[in-house]
Design a protein that fits this description.
Elements: E1 2-5, H1 16-25, E2 28-31, H2 40-47, E3 52-55, H3 62-66, E4 73-76, H4 86-91, E5 95-97, H5 104-120, H6 122-130, E6 146-150, H7 154-165, E7 169-173, H8 179-185, E8 188-189, H9 192-198, E9 201-204, H10 218-222, E10 228-232, H11 241-250, E11 253-258, E12 277-279, H12 288-308
Parallel strand pairs: 1-2, 1-3, 3-4, 4-5, 6-7, 6-9, 7-8, 9-10, 10-11, 11-12
Helix pairs in contact: 1-12, 5-7
């Protein structure tokens, strides 16, 4: 049994407690030595002789899957699986599983951190102060404002709890929203259009699908109150970054916090010209607790799929 392991947080010397069951289960483990997600041309030679694949943020295309006839199961280290062609995997008889919920607190807390940082321009003020400046910058208080959450899953619920702790009114849009949960937790369920019209802060927690790509475009941004803050700690591509840039320059957007970009890493992004942009390197899930939990569950999922042919979190049955 040969298994490829590509997440940067699960290379030799990292998360060894979680890797031990996989080492005991497999005859051979192959690791990703690049320190970054792999392209399809880099994946194929590593994966073509593998039975199982513990996947990071690699691009797992139809070409990759059809080049790997021995592959039986892919276990995603994380919640998102938009970089996996799940339909092609199903056609090839390859199971795909993810690790929902285990990184919710980590990502939700980072998203709210981005909200705070954008509201008060904390990174910009930090840089200026270190350089000898002593700027007086007028920020925005969160108490009494309206927080709109697009995607009220496990992560969105953490952000909602944080917002309520700061005295914010919380709205939520989600095509699959749990109305009972909303009633029990004082969250108002609204349409996407209403959320955009009413929210001083919008936090995105959606998968990247054809229906969500550039969902936050110039038209959507124009609906926001002037000076609103927009945060994306889910997937790049949901925001039209060109439209966001123009809105930031005009003052329509008061701040932008991004942990996900259309191109990663976002080298040369014109967004970085602006002082009201806060950026982090897709690090929402990178806490000690979340990485341990994701590692353990992704290993468990892969062993179950290769052992018994099933697991609780298969996404392409």
């Amino acid at each position: 049994m040969k298994i490829l392991v590509t997440p940067t947080s699960m290379q030799p010397g990292k998360n060894e407690d979680a890797l031990k069951p996989l080492r005991d289960f497999a005859d051979e483990l192959v690791f990703n030595e690049t320190g970054r997600p792999l392209t399809e041309d880099e994946l194929i030679p590593l994966l073509k002789d593998c039975d199982g694949y513990l996947a990071g943020l690699d691009f797992i295309t139809e070409k990759v899957l059809k080049s790997c006839p021995k592959l039986k199961a892919i276990s995603r280290y994380g919640v998102g699986f938009d970089r996996v062609d799940v339909n092609a995997a199903k056609e090839c008889g390859i199971m795909v599983a993810n690790t929902p919920g285990v990184n919710a607190v980590a990502v939700g807390e980072l998203a709210f951190g981005l909200i705070l940082a954008a509201a008060r321009k904390i990174p910009y003020l930090d840089r200026s102060t270190r350089e000898g400046g002593w700027i007086r910058s007028t920020g925005m208080e969160l108490r009494g404002k309206t927080l709109g959450i697009c995607g009220l899953g496990a992560i969105g619920k953490v952000v909602a709890e944080c917002g309520q702790g700061f005295g914010m009114t919380v709205l939520a849009y989600d095509p699959y929203i749990n109305l009972d949960y909303c009633r029990e937790h004082g969250i108002e369920s609204v349409t996407f259009e209403e959320l955009m019209h009413r929210s001083n802060v919008v936090s995105l927690h959606l998968p990247l699908l054809e229906s969500t790509k550039h969902m936050i475009n110039a038209e959507a941004i124009s609906c926001l109150p002037d000076g609103a803050i927009l945060v994306n700690a889910s997937r790049g591509g949901i925001i039209d970054e060109d439209a966001a840039y123009e809105a930031l320059k005009s003052g329509k957007l008061g701040g932008l916090g991004l942990d996900a970009f259309e191109n990663e890493p976002p080298k040369g992004s014109k967004l970085f010209e602006l002082e009201n942009v806060v950026a982090t390197p897709h690090t929402g899930a990178h806490t000690k607790e979340a990485t341990q939990n994701m590692a353990a569950l992704s290993v468990k999922n892969l062993i179950e799929m290769l052992g018994s042919g099933s697991c609780k979190y298969i996404v392409n049955r």
